[in-house]
Amino acid sequence: MAKLHREAGEKVFRGALEDLQAGKLRRVEAARRTALLLSLFVMLSPVALIVAGGIIAVAALPFLGGIFWGGLLIAVGVFLFPARFRVPERALRRNDAPRLFKDLDRVSEALGAPKVTVVAVDGSFNAFAAMHRKEVVLGIGAVLWDASSPEQRLALVAHETAHFVNGDPSRTRVIGFALQMLDKWEMLLEPDFGDAAHAFAALLLLPLRWLVALLNETIRTLLYVQMQRAEYLADALAAEVAGGNAVRQLLSTISLSEYIDEQWSTRHGVGSARGRDVIKMIVEPVVQLNADERVEIAMGNGKVDHSVDTTHPPTHYRIAFLDAACLTKRKILNNLFDREDMSFEKAFDAVGESLAAQLEVQ
After folding, report:
1. Mean pLDDT score of the chain, rounded to an integer?
2. Nearest Cα to Cα of residue 92 among 276, 354, 353, 340
3. Radius of gyration of the chain from Cα atoms?
4. What is the pLDDT of residues 157-215, one digit of tens each?
5. Residue 340 phi, psi (nearest 5)
6. Closest Cα partner for 147 from 271, 69, 259?
């Protein structure tokens, strides 16, 4: 299985490189169109349940049994709709951190992307970007941010912002909503064999559960190559904004996430450190490494196939993509993310306190 994954990863890498050189990295494959059609079918399911529930309830009047079952179908249909966006904890808006948002705006303008409206800070070694109706959300992992130089931070923001313009299918509303609905379907249909009645109901619903699982897996499989290609394109766009070297260094830093975990697994507590100093203590093992030491650690730990998660290509392919595409010297923005607003600092202090509490428990 590992060999198949490596072969698939290399095939996507070669294809992405060829498409970039031919100016076709943004092309939409037939698989994405199929995934879109399946997603539209999935999105009809809650509407169908609500309509069916209403018809049953009205037709059954004044009998309570029919009204109950009709109301149940309506309730399930309403539940399946994606939840409304809630501003994350420790979220910052434009008025909270004007300096940060000014830098974010320059990145968005350079990429032709929508401007970020909400910045969410958490304690992860990662980052994310998402769009919820009128909200454009950038998630910043405090640990990754403090492990990165200002140049790497620019590359990180550029990469995440590029997902709004790189054709990433997982960021489109129809497909994104459909995947959320399928996850809710699977939650509803989770079998319960606690007693005979529940077991019988689970068996009756088994075909529907199989159908939901099949749709979920099919859509994600169809999108796999397109999502991997989107990561390569996000790297390429980030390189144009921040410079390929900065993106390369960022990927090197990200590949050391497990190294940080290993360094801290033998420690208990954070001593007298508080607030953001806790985060700085966590990232200290990485910050002190030079480029050669980072490569040696990655190779020594057998992390050649490291990737952020299953939606991202292996990190070494992403670095090779930047090198092969000759993206190491481009750069159109400078001197960003080297100074911070007070509210941004306070958000990091809050994350540091939370991490300190978790580490003290360990």
Report:
1. 83
2. 340
3. 24
4. 999 999 988 777 777 788 888 999 999 999 988 876 666 666 777 788 888 999 999 99
5. -130, 150
6. 259
Angle at 294 between CA 239 and CA 125, to 5 degrees: 65
Query: Which residue matches tokens 């996000």?
Result: 234
How far is Cα 238 from Cα 161, in angstroms, rounded to an integer?
9
What φ, ψ does residue 77 adopt, rounded to 5°?
A: -60, -45
The span from the CA of 126 to the CA of 135, in Å, is 20
Reported as a pLDDT band with limits 50, 70 and 90, residue 1 is: very low
Question: Does 4 or 94 have the greater pLDDT score?
Answer: 94
| Amino acid identity at 155 | A
What distance in Å separates the CA atoms of residue 166 and residue 112, rounded to the nearest whole number? 11
- For 75-103, the pLDDT digits (tens) are 999 999 987 777 777 789 999 999 999 99
End-to-end CA distance of the chain: 35
CA distances from 114 to 107, 129, 142, 246 (A): 10, 11, 23, 23
| Contact residues for 312 (Cβ-Cβ < 8 A; gap 6+) | 228, 231, 318
User: Is 302 a residue whose pLDDT tops 50?
Assistant: no
For residue 273, the model assigns a pLDDT of 73
